[in-house]
Amino acid sequence: MRSEVEPTVTQVGLAVIFRDDEVLLARRHRDAPLGGFWEFPGGKVWPGESVLACVEREVGEEVGVQVRAEPSFLTVEHQYAHARVRLDCCRCTLIAGEPQALECAEVRWVPLVELAQYRFPAANASLLTRLAELARSAR
Length: 139
Description:
By secondary structure, the protein is of the alpha+beta class. It has helices at 51-63, 125-138, and strands at residues 9-19, 22-27, 38-39, 42-44, 66-69, 74-79, 84-96, 106-111. The protein has one domain: Alpha-Beta Complex (Nucleoside Triphosphate Pyrophosphohydrolase). The longest helix has 14 residues, at 125-138.
């Protein structure tokens, strides 16, 4: 009898930071996993850390701004060839700072209606659909 081992799931907190009808995106370094793709700032949740604390910490480290994160409005699980991830997507309010590329190749404010023009990791598909619906309802 073969024993099935449940794959380890990496929990990731993502920050959806709004400025009017735009959101903040970060571009991964070319030499990183999924290099060159655009993403929402965020990262791995540390053991014992809440998703909200993770999001606020990661945003500061990656793009140099301070945010207040709200509880996750969307959770997505995705299996990549190299890992299984659970993305907790949190709406964030910008409190202080001007975004800069500290731990990423580039940062950019992007109108919601233009998100489809950017290349994202596959795990972001549900989030992008949700944001497209938001953009349509705002018109």
